[in-house]
Automatic annotation (TrEMBL):
Keyword tags: Hydrolase, Nucleotide metabolism
Protein name: dCTP deaminase
EC code(s) of this entry: 3.5.4.13
Top-level class of the enzyme under EC nomenclature: hydrolase
Any single biological process term in GO: nucleobase-containing small molecule interconversion
Superkingdom, taxonomy of origin: Bacteria
Signal peptide range in chain numbering: none
GO molecular function ontology, one term from the record: dCTP deaminase activity
Pfam family, one: DCD
Length: 179
């Protein structure tokens, strides 16, 4: 079951979900609009390695915006911190942003119950596109859960700003267990 806009507002007010800052004008009929934060990351190497940390370059989005280039992956973040200990959040790009040729979320739209923080956005443009800090870039829907809850305690908890992949940490743990 998906939460309606009025239920998102009620849940934000009574603490069943946390959206900071919360703005009533960002509530949709069944989702909440999130805005692009002021920082972008791009991977600095041409070849990424899933078993190693990958260096990144940080960019600030200035008042004139920042032009994203095709063929590049940019890691952005939501301005809002969003999370819930009760509901399952899913993040998608807004249709108006998609119509500009921008992929906002590549393959991982589902958030875990218990995660609280800024969401990392995986931004990939089809053609050069100027984006601005604070623009409404995505929307989060909330679904009711069924069954016992084991809250998220993972490596991205309490994230602020864009987070590069930490997949290599999982590999390191697996190697330690295997040896």
């Amino acid at each position: 079951m998906i939460l309606t806009g009025p239920e998102i507002t009620a849940a934000a007010q009574d603490g069943r979900l946390r959206i900071t800052p919360f703005a009533p004008d960002q509530v949709n009929p069944n989702s909440y609009n999130v805005r692009l934060g002021p920082t972008l990351l791009a991977y600095a190497e041409g070849v990424l390695d899933a078993h190693q940390p990958n260096p990144t370059t940080e960019f600030a989005i200035g008042p004139d915006g920042y032009v994203l280039q095709p063929g590049e992956l940019y890691l952005g973040h939501t301005l809002e911190e969003v999370g819930s200990d009760v509901f399952v959040p899913l993040l998608f790009g807004r249709s108006s942003v998609g119509r500009l040729g921008l992929f906002v979320e590549i393959t991982a739209p589902i958030g875990d119950i218990g995660f609280h923080g800024q969401w990392t956005l995986m931004l990939t443009p089809i053609r050069p596109l100027r984006v601005y800090a604070g623009m409404r870039i995505g929307q989060i829907m909330f679904f009711a859960s069924a069954g016992p809850i084991s809250p998220y305690e993972g490596k991205y908890q309490a994230a602020t700003g864009p987070q590069p992949s930490a997949y290599w940490r999982d590999v390191t743990k697996l190697r330690a267990v295997a040896s």
